[in-house]
Give the backbone structure.
Amino acid sequence: MPELRLSTSVASSANVRGFGIIAETDELLVVDKPAFLLIHPTRPDGRRTLWSEVRNLLAFEIANGGQVSIVNRLDRETSGLVLIAKSAHAARQLGVLMQRHLIAKEYLAIVWGWPEWDCMLVDAPLLRQGSVSASKIFLKQTIHPNGAKAITELRVVQRFVRPSSSGDRFSLIRATPRTGRTHQIRVHLASVGHPIIGDKIYGPDERCYLEFIETGWTPELETRLLLPRHALHSAQLSAAGIGRWESGLPRDLSTWISGDA
């Protein structure tokens, strides 16, 4: 099969339907997903999703035999780069790259505290917590020796104190997952004592998540979590032999760091 190559001739972050287009060819699309946009429908309520918006955008291609296959998935609250195949041929080739661990991802996370280390490798297997102990949150993951192998490289990018935070310390971390487990970066950062700001499940108290489900975002939750979403952004994405793409911190996170939010 011919090798896929992705041109970056499309204007970076051209805004279409609320998400940015980073690059596009006849077979591939790289978009910059905003926080709070679901990747796929979770219920038949017509809620806006990245999948449905991309299908609308590519309606002509789909009508002529194309398809929409999302290669790397992000949590609803996670922002950043998503790679999408526009044909069955591209989906097969990218699937092979995923199996061979030749699609690499890097994330930026804002966390509580100043780590005593500059770089760290977290090698800690993950398992759904409900399979080994009681949990009111079905998807919550935990570190457990019987879990699936999970490895994350962590590097401190910046340590800072927000002007309006009364001296509280925070850090910007670059996280490189070497495996792709559910909530991997969030669990690993929490396990080393530096949970992600705004994380309702792995932050100060999992009851924040349960409260949020019942009441929505409230001033009380803002006091405890500081941000209405977990501060995690998919900042770099590369596919071997095809291309490499970057996305800077979105406005909500960059202004929060500067204290302007």
Remarks:
- The longest strand covers residues 151-161.
- The helical segments are 50-57, 59-63, 88-99, 184-191, 207-215, 219-225, 251-258.
- The chain is about 20% helix and 30% strand.
- The first helix runs from residue 50 to 57.
